[in-house]
Amino acid sequence: MATIIDTFGLRLADRLRSERDTRGWSLAELAQRAGVAKATISKIERAEASPTAAILVKLASAFGLTLSGLMLRAEERQHRLVRSNEQPVWRDPESGYVRKQVFSRPDHPVELIKVELPARQRVTLPAASYAHIRQAVWVQRGSLVLIEAGERHVLGTGDCLGFGAPAEVTFANETAAACEYVVALARS
């Protein structure tokens, strides 16, 4: 985990602590529910470490939220129009994956996320991150390999894949160039 925390990272740390406090959970209880080490959660909440995408998904799922929902709560935006320079960006310290929250509101069922996955990187997200949502991925540039419940899909520029039932999903860029894709999701 990286130790450089930006302004959004500080808000995210505060939001995680707030979500846990609101539920009256101890660090140990959140650790058990999320399957994340108590020490790791403590460092994240104190903004001493930046969480990976996989850890954030586990924490969000423990709170009954999507990753986007957690990010939205950390950002606390309430506008229908979201200017490009106002869209929160988060970088996974482990893979270098860059996630831009293009659109998300608590009163709207659709979310849009733009992702850049660096060359030769992969991110695996647990099935719990897909509970209560439906999702499609649309590749904008490059090649993306999706492994969903053991089934391998290779998507090129312009290809789109709708996800099936909740299952563990690996997003992999097996090429020497970055891949960009858009994730559209709807809460079910």
Model description:
There is one protein chain. With 188 residues, this protein is α+β, with helices and mostly antiparallel strands. The chain folds into 2 domains: 7-74, lambda repressor-like DNA-binding domains (434 Repressor (Amino-terminal Domain)), CATH 1.10.260; 80-187, Jelly Rolls, CATH 2.60.120.10. Helix content is 28%, strand content 30%. The chain is built from 5 helices and 10 strands. The chain has helices at 7-23, 27-34, 38-45, 53-62, 67-75, and strands at 89-91, 98-103, 110-117, 122-125, 133-141, 144-148, 151-155, 160-162, 169-172, 179-187. The strands form 2 sheets. A 6-stranded antiparallel sheet has the order 1-2-3-10-5-8, covered by helices on one side. Strands 4-9-6-7 form a 4-stranded antiparallel sheet. Helix 2 (27-34) packs across helix 4 (53-62). It starts with 6 loop residues before the first helix and ends with a strand. The mean pLDDT is 88.
